[in-house]
Write a structure and sequence with these properties.
Layout lengths: L16 H14 L7 H14 L4 E4 L2 H9 L7 E4 L5 H8 L4 E4 L22 E5 L10 H11 L2 E5 L7 E2 L2 E2 L6 E5 L12 E5 L5 H7 L4 E3 L2 E2 L10 H11 L2 H19 L5 E3 L6 E2 L5 E5 L7 H10 L28 H9 E4 L7 H13 L1
Parallel strand pairs: 2-3, 2-4, 4-5, 5-8
Antiparallel strand pairs: 1-9, 6-7, 6-13, 8-9, 10-11, 12-14, 14-15
Helix pairs in contact: 1-7, 2-7, 3-4, 8-11
This protein binds pyridoxal-5'-phosphate.
The site of pyridoxal-5'-phosphate has 14 residues, from helix 3 and helix 4.
């Protein structure tokens, strides 16, 4: 038995080529390629509409956006964050001269454990930087309560949660600053791209300066900045892709339901729990491979690969175990994050993945 074509963990969405070409024709008509062009503006307005918030700034990628967000915090300050994330979160904290303080994660949602934040707060704590891992929201209410009590800023790494809602409220409305990534592998993308939502309404002009070298006018450079602007080709892809997002999410939902139905009885395979008050985007399908399964995560990963299925150990290793950080930090203070990271496997999911392929993957895991 075999699968002739490789099934990868993800496959970037592409709209019909003609539609994209049609959209970028205007770039040749007006010769405006970057620096807040008309497509950039159109995209920004459509995003404010879609995300249900104001004060959006667009960036060339999510990481630059996150660095810009963290540049609003006074250098040297401590930032409470999670080690169970993508490299970008921690790098952006450190590259801004801030000190990450790693909090353990919740064993069900895999996001920062809000009940363990308070004990990490010191007089030098300036912010909390949680990550909505796999599209599953953090405990936003508890995090806000703590932040209000200690006057901390909350900057969400919302790279995985475009389009998610909590209690009918857009996820972009929770937190002081919220970063979405529009990278090609995300549920919704603009090839590369990033969004900052400024719920404080005080940082948008800083972000606009930051991403364009700090240039305020032909003869005025107000602050030290970098170049992180979104260009017109990216904006065009984003505008076109936005039309397909709802359909993409519906297809992913069917895949998640198929996986869940097929995997939920298997001993030692732990699945995500979904709640009724959340509107999900189904961005990832993680499983945790525990002892009762009879095979380790790495053995299952290899077995899937032998059958042409390429899952991903995401997030593994933990940030605190990266070779660039292992000497500075330890995973000992975050045992749940360590446990999950050593057993996590995200299975293939993308709109065009057929339910037959999903059944084929389930079958390999079921047989063990
Ligand atoms: C993708 C991602 C980022 C970075 O976004 P880019 O657009 O790729 O720069 C940051 N954090 C998390 C959790 C991500 O998944």
């Amino acid at each position: 038995m075999g699968q002739n074509e490789k099934i990868m963990v993800t496959k970037s969405f592409l709209p019909p080529m003609e539609q994209y070409i049609n959209k970028i024709k205007t770039i040749w008509e007006n010769n405006w390629l970057t620096n807040n062009g008309p497509l950039h503006e159109e995209f920004r307005e459509k995003l404010e509409d879609r995300l249900g918030v104001n004060n959006i700034s667009l960036f060339v990628n999510g990481h630059s956006a996150l660095e810009a967000a963290l540049s609003t915090i006074e250098e040297g300050g401590e930032v409470i964050t999670t080690p169970f994330t993508f490299a970008s979160t921690t790098h952006s904290i450190i590259r801004n001269g801030l000190v990450p303080v790693f909090c353990d994660i919740n064993e069900e949602s895999y996001s920062i454990d809000a009940d363990k934040i308070e004990e990490l707060i010191t007089p030098n704590t300036k912010a909390i930087v949680p990550v909505h891992v796999y599209g599953i929201p953090c405990d936003v209410y508890k995090i806000k309560e703590i932040a209000d009590k200690y006057e901390l800023k909350v900057i969400y790494d919302a790279a995985h949660v475009f389009g998610v809602e909590i209690d009918n409220k857009p996820i972009a409305s929770f937190g002081d600053i919220v970063m979405f990534s529009l990278h090609a592998t995300k549920v919704f993308h603009s090839i590369e791209g990033g969004i900052l939502v400024d719920n404080t309404a005080k940082c948008t002009s800083h972000f606009n300066l930051y991403k364009n070298f700090g240039i305020a006018g032909p003869e005025e450079v107000l602050q030290i900045g970098c170049n992180a602007k979104m260009n017109e080709f990216q904006a065009a892809m984003g505008i076109v892709n936005l039309e397909y997002l709802d359909k993409e999410i519906i297809k992913r939902k069917a895949i998640v339901e198929e996986y869940t139905q097929g995997l939920e009885g298997i001993k030692g395979i732990k699945l995500l729990k979904y709640s009724d008050n959340i509107k999900y985007n189904y961005s990832y399908y993680p499983i945790v491979v525990e002892e009762e399964y009879g095979m380790t995560r790495d053995e299952l990963y290899n077995k899937l690969a032998e059958n042409n299925v390429y899952a991903r150990k995401y997030f593994y290793p933990l940030v605190t175990e990266y070779s660039c950080y292992a000497e500075r930090y330890s995973s000992k203070s975050t045992p749940i994050a360590k446990y999950i990271s050593d057993r996590i496997l995200t299975l293939p999911i993308y709109g065009d993945l057929s339910l037959e392929d999903v059944k084929y993957i389930i079958d390999i895991i079921y047989k063990g």
